[in-house]
Amino acid sequence: MLAIVASFPPGFLWGVSTSSYQFEGANTLNQWHDWERAGHIRSGHSCGAACDWWTNAERDLDLCAALGLNAIRISLEWSRMEPAFAHWSDTAVMRYREIIRAARSRGMRVFVTLHHFTHPRWFEARGAFLDGHAPELFRHYCKRAVRSLGDLVSDWVTFNEPNVYAAFGYLLGDFPPGRVNELNSALSVLGAMMRAHGEAYDVLHREQPGAQVGMAVNYVVFEPARDHVLDQQFVFAYDALFNRGVLHYLRGEPLPLPFAMMAPSAPQCVGKIDFIGLNVYNRLYVRAPFGEKPLGPGGLYVPRGVPQGDPAANSSYGEACPKVVCPAVEAYSALGCPLYVLENGVPDQSDRIRPWLMVNSIKETRRMWQQGYDVRGYFHWSLVDNFEWSEGWRLRFGLYELDPSTGARTARPSAEIYRSIIADNGIRRETLERWEKAPEDLPNEESTTYTGI
Ligand code: BGC
What we know:
- It is a single chain.
- The protein is α/β, with parallel strands linked by helices.
- It has 16 helices and 14 strands.
- The strands form 3 sheets. Strands 2-3-4-5-6-7-10-11 form an 8-stranded parallel β-barrel, surrounded by 6 helices. Strands 1-14 form a two-stranded antiparallel sheet. A two-stranded antiparallel ribbon has the order 12-13.
- α8 (162-170) packs antiparallel against α9 (183-207).
- Bound molecules: beta-D-glucopyranose (BGC).
């Protein structure tokens, strides 16, 4: 008899997460297409046909079914739905209906994200979330989405990682519009997204009384490099803003000082949350950049000798860290709503470290559920290799390897490991024993710097 050492409750959701720009292909109407054409992709690649979902998502949905998934998260491309201001596309709706139907007919509950970093060019031209009308424009789009798809979907994620969107676009310059060190703008954008979330929450519920409306946040463990008060203060600031900014807004609490003085309020989002998606990948270390040469922007770095996946073009992707699940769950349980691990993964072309990361993250998820936290699902990022934003095709996150030139999909060993965990609704003793300890050759010595979160 098989010994399952970490079993999950019946009905636990096993999924993969995806996003429109990274999977669909042929998206030319959003701000990322322009960013790409302006030469900002470090690998020099272009997104192109991506994973070709606009033509044939069904091929990958078959892979999902073969894995035994009972859930999937996709996103809608706002620029397909509303290619020009107030012009709506029925063709886009028809294709999304086909994709969602195809997923449902293969046994998957479909979570739909309404904004996963991309939006129409016309919205970017107005200033995106710095435009005072942004929450209203987003609300119109959400209303259209629920009216067109509400008979097939009731799990909505308004925004993917507003914390990453604001930090990468306005502090680090890694995402469009490529602004750097604009803390005021970053806080204004975060506040506007929270107002937009509140408006979207209301309209989704008005149009669909059974809707479940959540949001996905990226949670990073920030670790002080030394037992030094300055390092600890930096950690406090990163944690307060990056990890807990969304939490403060949803609870109607001001951000800690000094951010409270700069951050706009968003009373319309308070308490408006039916679930939280936790996107958990990394630990980063913080050494306050005073008196010594900074190791990375804002004192963030990744030391040698910690588990890492493949490096990004100019830096480490971060320490791969299954333990992030616990503080993320603890922090967001304060909202009293269901939680899903909505993304977890590692860039790893050769599947050197993914089995360890995945098995242990699932184990941590189960530990939190066993302790009484309302964790209802685990979604891996991702099914197949996909277009990784400013890193292009360089970073490979798939359970399946994708050759973008031929479209061929090849299972990595992690795909079979995930399939067996899903089939057992738990982790077998031998799987845990095999993967619990990090392989000896885990540490990646190539890079200690870090340029993004
Ligand atoms: C984002 C995904 C991205 C993944 C890997 C997440 O923060 O939501 O779009 O591909 O991280 O970097």
